[in-house]
């Protein structure tokens, strides 16, 4: 049995022996060097795995839960052993932010990080535009996250990647 293919230069049909499959040869008509394809039965086609709709829905739900949890954890609520001492700690900003504002920042930063992790540059740009509206407070919040340096577990990225995402965000703010 032989391999039949068209010359890429002159377009004429060429017939080559099976033993020449996967190699280069000269077209007998135009003398152009041409790749001789492998016989069709040699290469086994590898199919794609079917899309698991349940897994996709579960991933979306888990990402939303993670955003909600991150937002809840970033809220500054009085602790169980709060002494009521108004002295700010080293991590607190001088400018006290309303709880809703802080939660908004946390959600927007988390949206940015999720978008970057998923390589969704459109969503990352949208989150960046929202954060730019927050001004200096957004910068302070991102800088505070960089100091912590610990990525949320839901991101699934190593700390250096997490810090790189935050560094990029800071440059854009």
Describe this structure in words.
The chain has 173 residues and is mainly alpha-helical. The protein has two domains: 2-35, no CATH class; 53-70 and 94-172, no CATH class. The chain has five helices and four strands, in the order E-E-E-E-H-H-H-H-H. The protein has helices at 53-74, 99-117, 121-132, 136-148, 159-172; strands spanning 2-6, 13-17, 24-26, 33-35. A hairpin with a 6-residue loop joins strand 1 and strand 2.
Short recap of the structure:
The protein is mainly alpha-helical. Helices cover 46% and strands 9% of the residues. It has helices spanning 53-74, 99-117, 121-132, 136-148, 159-172, and strands at residues 2-6, 13-17, 24-26, 33-35.
Please give the structural blueprint.
Elements: E1 2-6, E2 13-17, E3 24-26, E4 33-35, H1 53-74, H2 99-117, H3 121-132, H4 136-148, H5 159-172
Helix pairs in contact: 1-2, 2-3, 2-4, 4-5
Q: Give the number of helices.
A: 5
Whole-number mean pLDDT: 76
* Largest pleated sheet: 2 strands, antiparallel
Structural class: mainly alpha
Which band does the percent of strand residues land in? Answer: 5-15%
* Number of E strands: 4
Taken in chain order, the helices and strands follow as: EEEEHHHHH
The stretches of 5 or more residues where confidence is low (pLDDT under 50) are 76-101
Distance between the termini: 65 Å
Rg, Cα atoms, Å: 29 Å
Neighbour order of strands in the largest sheet? 1-2
Share of helix among residues? 40-55%
Shape: elongated
The structural domain count equals: 2
């Amino acid at each position: 049995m032989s391999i039949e293919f068209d010359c890429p230069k002159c377009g004429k049909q060429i017939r080559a022996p099976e033993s020449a499959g996967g190699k280069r040869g000269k077209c007998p008509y135009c003398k152009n060097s041409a790749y001789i394809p492998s016989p069709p039965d040699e290469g086994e086609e590898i199919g794609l795995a079917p899309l698991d709709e349940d897994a996709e829905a579960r991933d979306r739900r888990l990402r939303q839960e993670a955003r909600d949890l991150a937002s809840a954890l970033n809220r500054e609520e009085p602790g169980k052993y709060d002494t009521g001492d108004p002295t700010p700690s080293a991590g607190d900003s001088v400018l006290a932010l309303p709880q809703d504002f802080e939660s908004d920042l946390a959600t927007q930063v988390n949206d940015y990080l999720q978008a970057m992790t998923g390589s969704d540059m459109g969503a990352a740009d949208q989150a960046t535009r929202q954060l730019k509206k927050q001004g200096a407070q957004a910068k302070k919040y991102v800088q505070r996250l960089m100091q912590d340096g610990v990525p949320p577990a839901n991101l699934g990225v190593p700390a250096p990647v997490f810090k790189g995402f935050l560094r990029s965000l800071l440059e854009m703010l």
